[in-house]
Amino acid sequence: MHTDRSTQPLPAPRTYSSVALEAALAKRHTVRHFQPHALTPDEIGQLLWAAQGVTHGDGRRTAPSASNLKALETYVITETDVDRYLPDEHALQPLHDGDMRSALQEATGGQSFVESAPLIVAFSIVPGRVAGKHGEERGVRYSDFEAGHAGQNLLLQAVALDLGGVPIGSFDDTAVCRLLELPDGEKPRYLFALGRPA
């Protein structure tokens, strides 16, 4: 069901913390068991900014993008709704009301932490944005690189916020496309379950 809520600005991201990058790298590990508490808007906003936030006036983002063509799209799934992240506005665009985590769990082959995680971040790629300049094969390759860069940023930011997460690459592409209602030319690539470690 589509929602009619307007775009929701996120709290401004911070660009400094007391957690050193080296400490976040050393502490990062896969977390599959989460407390049920929802994440705050500040936490969600900070995670999304780390993954795909704008850092320069020309639109460059926290994760490298081939020729700055921005092949990545970011979706946020919680117990209440599904939104798309708008990096230029640092805001959420509401897409659907309702809890989709159970359906996503089924699409991942029944991985139980997908339904229990308070936050799922989904990356999709649009290789056509890159293919015009670099060709179809490299369009997919470079888009995949971008998803990997953004994913590592997301996981390290989670550590810095005392959160944890698990990357998920095993899922039914067709089912995820249907659940997120992805447009033609947009392909699901990576899911992340995130929350406070149990």
Describe this protein's structure.
By secondary structure, this protein is an alpha+beta fold. Helix 5 crosses helix 6. It has helices spanning 21-27, 41-52, 101-107, 113-116, 128-134, 136-160, 173-180; strands at 8-9, 72-77, 81-86, 91-97, 119-125, 164-168, 187-195. A hairpin with a 4-residue loop joins strand 3 (81-86) and strand 4. The two termini are 32 Å apart. Helix content is 35%, strand content 21%. The longest helix has 25 residues, at 136-160. The protein has 7 helices and 7 strands; from the N terminus they run βααβββααβααβαβ. It has a 7-stranded antiparallel sheet with strand order 1-4-3-2-5-7-6, sandwiched between helices.
Q: What secondary-structure arrangement, pairings included, does this model have?
A:
Elements: E1 8-9, H1 21-27, H2 41-52, E2 72-77, E3 81-86, E4 91-97, H3 101-107, H4 113-116, E5 119-125, H5 128-134, H6 136-160, E6 164-168, H7 173-180, E7 187-195
Antiparallel strand pairs: 1-4, 2-3, 2-5, 3-4, 5-7, 6-7
Keywords:
single chain; 7-stranded antiparallel β-sheet; alpha+beta; globular; 198 residues
> How far is the first residue's CA from the last residue's CA?
32 Å
Number of helices: 7
Proportion of helical residues: 25-40%
User: Which structural class matches the secondary elements?
Assistant: alpha+beta
Order of helices and strands: EHHEEEHHEHHEHE
Strand order of the largest sheet: 1-4-3-2-5-7-6
**Strand content bin:** 15-25%
Number of strands: 7
Flag low-confidence runs: none
Tell me the radius of gyration: 16 Å
The shape is globular
Mean pLDDT: 95
Q: What about the largest sheet?
A: 7 strands, antiparallel
